[in-house]
Sequence to fold (198 residues):
Amino acid sequence: MRFKGKIYICLPFFVIIYLSGCYTPPAFKPITTTTVKPPKMDLYISNQLDRYFVRDWKYIVIHHSASASGCAAEFDKFHREKRGWENGLGYHFVIGNGCGSGNGQIEIGNRWINQIDGAHAGVQEYNHYGIGICLVGNFNESYPTATQMASLSALVEYLQERCRIPSENIIMHRHFRETECPGRNFPYYKLLAKTVRW
Fold:
């Protein structure tokens, strides 16, 4: 009998709230975060990278082209004809800025395909053990595009996992050579904040 009394008291209260329109369910609010994981590389590039056996890489070395435009083919021609490098393009990867190749486009160089030393570092240790990535642009005068940085983050994450490269071995060219490369405006610490910790 006491149990029925509680139902009798609560039921009219619920009905009054429902009928009066005073109760509205809370609005749905999507969960937002301040950090955004960089997009995965497009399937074509990922499949291309997965095709190659990888050797003992220890470093990822970041460069800029110090030019407003360019692409892997242009740099390859310059390195063959002006520098006299038999294997051409000194980098393993080039990431475009929209002037010469697509904005954020990852171009795979011959040195990655054949798993051979780079010619990007000027120091044998880093040419032999370092994967050279060049972003098109002069980052003393401008900044990498957001799309370039998203592609770089995705590529670095892939290379770290595939080659077991720790975050402390993701370095800029200027870390071991007297140069400003990859430029004063390159957001190195933002890149490091998104890397895989081993």
